[in-house]
Design goal:
alpha+beta, 27 helices, 30 strands, about 35% helix, globular
Length: about 950
């Protein structure tokens, strides 16, 4: 049967583009008619539900989450979508408004904000009630859904009933997705959903990072709840009630035959007899889900082995002393030109370079080998696509360049027209169908919030608003992962722990699959195997000074995936969060690495969360260290993986700064982030430049701050912040070559026009300045290599590109979300190019590179390199620059950039124009406070 093979690691269960003959023509109508005949979900239309009295936003809170709230579809709805393109109710009604902001932001006014966003006020006006449900026939909870977006508004009179309703609503909207990701977290996706190479890569990526047994998952629940007193007990009760609601919906949808159709397409249910089961959810499923989300968005660090390899390459190229200087200059641990979230000059030292490193365990040259994960491949598991997916998954897992994404713009009331703070913020979590996040409002004893939560973890709102405050997060990326060199003894599977030779713990997972309607991948199987030590899972093997070692990675949140539940519980509690201080106290209980932002009617606040381990004196967090007591985290207990952590005051934090920006940039002075690239040019600058200007002028409004975000969302970072300097070099002498001169004119015109990747008009699917954009997309990789490779040498240049990719344009396939993911310009060599070109021009550079690279530091030689590569780039056709993929034909520039809602189920959506902005986004300005 023909099918579309997914290209990227999260593009999983794409239902066939063409159906077999028996599903075509009149046959499809008969089948659909039969499938529509079973009972539909009970819900009474109409009803009454007034606007909540506990809402202090004054109608000025808005949000958006494409494509739509409804992420479940019956088999009939999936077939109708695949054949006729019809959409289930509320499956994509937020996609159009979200997309339209790209063309409409320039004339945006406050009264038009909800043209592009939802009204995020509490409650539902009586004339806007679409349905009212009493889940499970309970009398202590009601789920009201609004007409515009179908968001569930859950109101309970008991705590149990409220959480039961939250679970029921989650299953109504995301049951299939929740099931997919509980299997991802356990490393069992292929056995559940099919053996597509993308599925193989996904389960390998996450299971390598968190190879938990069922006992491990349960132990994390026991630990998280036992160590949190009354709040821990309440969290456990909330989770159990939430599960009861999920399982109630599973039973109701199964008997009523309105469960998600993907269960039929993947062979778990029979469409005719209803045979088969949908397994109930249990507490350990929530931990498995949390481990996936934490790994994707909240676990900074790692990459120490790659760092060691590039350092050794630098020392080989330049000698130890000069090579170390070169390496440090590219690392940019604490670059003085970096955009900062806390920009008042306050210092928060963390993971700083020691004067004299202690305990370093750098590998012998050529000795490093990655630890295999997959064994005993059979059938389709042995294809080139499958092994390629495994290689990509391993590289993604082990890099320090975690693509958490997300941005925030927050302005103090001192700079706004109303005198009240304004925030535009949200997480970039990629684009999926259904979306990873879901919207809800939850009102009950001790709970009062509206916003987004990850599907299957929505017992609390994770990002959103309370009665008189809103909060959001961006991925921070500070280093909470260290690499240890454990010395082997006896054989390759025993190691020394405090002088005693002990065995590694082997954990295995065997998966097999066969073709289904959803995934026609041929039958296959494999076994995943991870060796665990007290210092974490084994990731590499090597020798150090001739001694055989295993390199392990230890993450402070390892075995603690459930701990953050307490912080989220507090954020939803109106009796707890009442001020910036109580907000900061709440997010201090979140052990994942995030930047948290807060706004109410009078104050703003910021706090960087995460369990930052206190390292032993002299340990350099950039490199592997020996697994010996002297170099372990302070007070580290391997039995519980707990340690001494830096105090809250040592985390970057602030209250009522004039403004805050974050786009995964550096948090504060002296606070080292694990990924490379926090230098003079970072996508955070796109926000910093715009918001700083707005705040300085004063009179900021919600629409003005939204316009700043939307303008940055269309900006090409390279063109806005680096291209003008490149053109300055090129124009340092007259450009006599006609091809080069034409390219320079096009690029210059684009910069003058604003350096945006924007359609000529709404829906045109053609960029203004299209030729200039094509030229820069082609020129950047050619130029970077020609600028740096001759001076660095091939080995060091290649090693540095493993630490930091050179480019991340919108059309590039990158990170766990692959191409067509919206998020762009997070990682690249723009800072290196900027600093090097400025140095060649003789301009002042703080924290410059150790040497000049473009043309060996000669302006004329540098100019020759730039013009030569520019001519080559200008001569490349659109088809060469944009070669096409499973979504786009070769040469289609707009399509290459476009955002695709990657199918995680059977419903497909159309492409939208590129924007580099949060997936879920709030625009808020509170008018009063309790």
């Amino acid at each position: 049967m023909p099918r579309c093979t997914p290209r990227t690691t999260l593009d999983r269960l794409r239902t066939p583009r063409r159906f077999p003959k028996f599903l075509k023509a009149a046959s499809i109508c008969v089948l659909v008619a039969g499938l529509l005949s079973p009972l539909t979900q009970a819900a009474a239309a109409g009803g009454t539900a007034g606007l909540a009295a506990n809402d202090y936003c004054g109608g000025q809170c808005s949000d958006i989450l494409p494509p739509g709230e409804n992420g479940n579809a019956t088999l009939a709805q999936i077939l109708l979508n695949q054949v006729f393109g019809t959409q289930p109710d509320h499956a994509e009604d937020q996609l159009g408004p979200y997309s339209n902001l790209a063309a409409g932001y320039s004339t945006l006014t406050d009264d038009k904000i909800n043209t592009f966003f939802n009204d995020a006020s509490f409650g539902v006006a009586s004339d806007q009630v679409a349905s009212t449900t009493k889940p499970g026939g309970r009398t202590d909870v009601t789920i009201v859904r609004d007409k515009k977006s179908g968001v569930p508004h859950i109101t309970g009179t008991t705590r149990y009933g409220t959480e039961y309703g939250a679970g029921y609503a989650a299953a109504q909207d995301r049951l299939w997705l929740m099931d997919v990701f509980r299997h991802v977290g356990r490393g069992q996706l292929t056995s559940f959903a099919g053996g597509a190479p993308s599925n193989q890569g996904l389960e390998q990526e996450f299971w390598r990072n968190a190879p938990y047994t069922e006992a491990d998952l349960q132990a994390q629940i026991d630990s998280a709840t036992a160590n949190a007193g009354a709040r821990g007990a309440q969290a456990l009760a909330d989770a159990n009630a939430y599960l009861d609601g999920i399982n109630s919906y599973i039973d109701a949808s199964d008997s009523g035959r309105y469960f998600p159709g993907e269960y039929v397409l993947t062979g778990h249910k029979d469409a005719i007899t209803n045979a088969g089961t949908i397994d109930h959810f249990k507490l350990t499923d929530l931990v498995a889900l949390a481990s996936v989300i934490g790994a994707l968005f909240g676990s900074g660090g790692g990459g120490e082995v790659n760092n060691a390899l590039s350092l050794l390459a630098a020392q080989s190229q330049y000698g130890v002393t000069e090579g170390t200087k070169v390496w440090e200059s590219f690392r940019e641990r604490n670059d003085p030109e970096a955009a900062l979230t806390v920009h008042n000059g306050e210092s928060f030292p963390y993971a700083t370079k020691p004067d004299t490193a202690q305990g370093e365990a750098l590998p012998d040259a050529g000795s490093v080998a990655q630890e295999p994960l997959v064994y005993d491949r059979t059938g389709s598991a042995g294809t080139a696509k499958a092994t390629g997916a495994s290689a990509t998954a391993a590289a993604t897992t082990l890099t320090s360049a975690k693509r958490g994404m997300s941005n925030a713009l927050v302005v103090s009331g001192k700079a706004t027209a109303s005198g009240h703070p304004i925030a535009v913020f949200g997480p970039q979590t990629g684009y999926f169908a259904p979306q990873l996040l879901m919207l809800q409002e939850i009102q009950g004893p001790g709970l009062s919030a509206r916003g987004a939560s990850f599907a299957g973890l929505s017992m609390y709102v994770e990002l959103g608003r309370g009665q008189d405050y809103s909060w959001s997060a961006t991925t921070s990326g500070q280093d909470i992962i260290d690499t240890y060199a454990v010395e082997l003894c006896q054989d390759d599977y025993h190691y020394l722990y405090h002088g005693t030779c002990i065995a590694m713990d082997k954990v295995e997972r065997t998966n097999s699959w066969k073709p289904t309607t959803a995934d026609g991948t041929a039958a296959g199987s494999y076994r995943m195997q991870v060796y665990r030590t007290k210092y974490g899972p084994v990731e590499y093997r090597a020798t150090v000074g001739g001694k055989k070692v295993a390199y392990t990675t230890l993450r402070s949140s390892y075995m603690h995936e459930a701990d953050s539940i307490i912080g989220f519980q507090m954020l939803n509690d109106p009796d707890y969060v009442k001020s910036p201080g109580t907000f900061q106290s709440a997010v201090q209980h979140i052990n994942y690495t995030f930047n948290w932002f807060y706004a109410d009617s009078a104050h703003t606040a910021y706090y960087n969360s995460g369990d930052n381990p206190v390292r032993a004196s002299g340990v350099d967090a950039e490199f592997p260290v020996w697994a010996q007591a002297a170099y372990e985290w302070q007070n580290w207990d391997p039995a519980t993986n707990t340690a001494a952590y830096t105090p809250a005051s040592a985390h970057p934090n602030s209250v009522d700064q004039d403004y805050y920006i974050s786009w995964n940039n550096k948090q504060a002075k002296d606070y080292t982030t694990a990924p490379w690239g926090d230098g003079s040019v970072h996508r955070g600058n796109l926000l910093e430049d715009r918001v700083k200007k707005l705040a300085a002028a004063g009179g900021v409004t919600r629409s003005a701050l939204t316009r700043a975000m939307a303008d940055a969302a269309l900006a090409d970072l390279r063109a806005e912040d680096v291209l003008p300097k490149l053109l300055q070099v090129v124009k340092s002498s007259p450009v006599t070559d006609t091809a080069a001169a034409a390219a320079v004119t096009k690029l210059s015109d684009w910069v003058t026009a604003g350096a945006r990747r924007k359609e000529t008009s709404a829906g045109s699917k053609t960029y203004a300045n299209a030729d200039a954009i094509r030229i820069l997309d082609a020129w950047w990789p050619l130029m970077v290599k020609a600028e740096f490779a001759p001076g660095l040498g091939t080995d060091l240049y290649t090693a540095f590109t493993a630490n930091l990719p050179i480019d991340e344009s919108p059309s590039a396939a990158h990170g766990p979300t692959g191409a067509h993911a919206g998020s762009s310009f997070q990682y690249g060599w723009w800072s290196y190019v900027d600093k090097d070109i400025r140095a060649v021009l003789g301009q002042p550079v703080q924290g410059g590179l150790a040497q000049k690279y473009c043309g060996g530091g000669s302006l004329s030689a540098c100019r020759d390199i730039l013009i030569s590569t520019l001519k080559t780039a200008a001569g490349l056709t659109a088809a060469q620059v944009y070669p096409g993929d499973d979504q786009c034909s070769a040469g289609d520039q707009w399509c290459a950039d476009s955002i695709v809602q990657r199918a995680l189920g059977g419903i497909k959506h159309g492409r939208i124009t590129w924007q580099n902005r949060p997936t879920y986004q709030q625009v808020v300005e509170y008018t009063s406070h309790r």
